[in-house]
Design goal:
Length: about 400
């Protein structure tokens, strides 16, 4: 991996302070993306247990849960108890200084603590404040707890996933949470741009349900246009053929012939030009109508060779194709291709720790092991440092630590 250039341009959110009052996935994922863009993210955690995901193992890297490590690079950890008056005062002081506040307390909790938008904006009028909830403030029972798997079901995502003759299937990753995190990061960046232009902050509201509904894209629109529930199509595509996985002699392959020209190229590579001329398959609409027959013909042709060989031939012909890979295989393949899919950070306990990079890249040299990228923090690793920055005296900090209202977990 290539070291970062000393004269590389500043990260786009350099100088932005984010108070991260969120936990679990959607909020921490969003604030990690903000940290990836250069923001100084202070993660506020309970001094004893910290973020829930710290306990979500196995698997573990040493004593650190892989789940937590996936969502918290680039942050500093401030472990204080917001039920303690001085701990709460410290968090309020952090919010008063922050450019961005992100929270996913259950509806009403932030307001009871004096950390709601109105309270924070009274001391910090330009703040960009983001509330994350499961179902949104206008939803019936807005205090209803929102978990990814519940929202996958409620949003229709689950109903569209799985084989046609099977039941609805949970998506393998917490997609509703991930979509929410992406929406939070995008909305916060947009609000920061507006603040630069107008000086005005504002209250951004993002819910898991609305994020998942917006993620239905063409299936949501199809349902609105037709008034009919979309059917599950498994590995295939409801409106394009061939656009699915196929078995080969030694593994599964994905072929996405998204238009008539690509379909003809596919037929040529398969040595089946007759399939391109057959009136049942000439146009995509015809292929959709005769899906089962065509898929059987393509499957038979693909059985003659292995996935790697077909992949090379189809790629050379310009036909979109890919192997069905396992997670570790996919990461290693991307890295080996020069895609810089991973980064290495220096973790205070684990040493060199490999992490998956964010999905975006900024122009310039790709960073390698970079001491400027903070590893996922230990619980309370930066408590004293942050409390000093907030103006607390050494005596007050020591008192917080002595009574357990704050924690400073030393680097071992």
């Amino acid at each position: 991996m290539t070291p970062a250039s000393a004269d590389a341009p500043a990260a786009p959110l350099s100088g932005v302070l984010v108070a991260d009052l969120s936990r679990v996935l959607a909020g921490p994922y969003a604030t990690m993306l903000l940290a990836d863009m250069g923001a100084d993210v202070v993660k506020v955690e309970h001094p004893d247990r910290g973020d829930d995901t710290r306990a979500w193992g196995p698997p573990w890297a040493g004593d650190q849960a892989a789940y937590y490590l996936a969502l918290n690079r680039g942050k500093r950890s401030l472990a204080v108890d917001v039920k303690d008056p001085d701990g709460l005062a410290a968090v309020r002081a952090l919010c008063a200084r922050a450019d961005v506040v992100v929270q996913n307390f259950r509806p009403g909790t932030a307001e009871r603590l004096g950390l709601g938008y109105a309270d924070v904006a009274a001391d910090n009028p330009g703040v960009v404040y983001c509330s994350i909830s499961g179902f949104g403030p206008g939803h019936t029972r807005p205090d209803r707890p929102g978990f990814d798997v519940v929202v996958q079901g409620e949003s229709g995502l689950m109903s569209t996933t799985g084989e046609p003759d099977g039941g609805p299937t949970k998506i393998g990753i917490p997609l509703a949470d991930v979509l929410t995190g992406l929406n939070v990061a995008a909305a916060v960046c947009g609000a920061l741009v507006r603040r630069t232009a107008t000086g005005q902050g504002g209250h951004v509201r993002v819910s898991l349900l609305n994020s998942a509904l917006s993620g239905l894209v063409q299936l949501g629109q199809s349902a609105l246009v037709t008034g009919v529930e979309p059917e599950r199509v498994g590995h295939a595509h409801a409106a394009i053929v061939p656009y699915q996985t196929f078995p080969t002699a030694d593994g599964d392959l994905i072929i996405a012939a998204g238009n008539d020209a690509l379909y003809r190229k596919l037929c040529a590579v398969l040595g089946r030009p007759d399939l391109a001329e057959d009136p049942r398959f000439c146009r995509n609409a015809d292929r959709v109508a005769h899906r089962a027959v065509l898929v059987a013909e393509i499957t038979e042709a693909l059985s003659a060779r292995g996935a790697e060989e077909w992949s090379a031939l189809l790629t050379e012909a310009g036909v979109p194709v890919g192997k069905v890979r396992g997670v570790l295989e996919a990461i290693r393949t991307a890295d080996a291709s020069g895609d810089e899919a991973t980064m290495t950070v220096d973790h205070p306990v684990l040493g060199a720790l490999e992490l998956v990079r964010p999905g975006f890249r900024f122009a310039g040299p790709a960073p390698g092991p970079d001491p400027e990228v903070l590893p996922p923090p230990l619980l309370g690793q930066h408590s004293v440092e942050v409390l000093r920055e907030l103006g607390l005296s050494a005596e007050r900090i020591e008192a917080l630590l002595e009574r357990g209202a704050a924690a400073q977990h030393p680097v071992r």
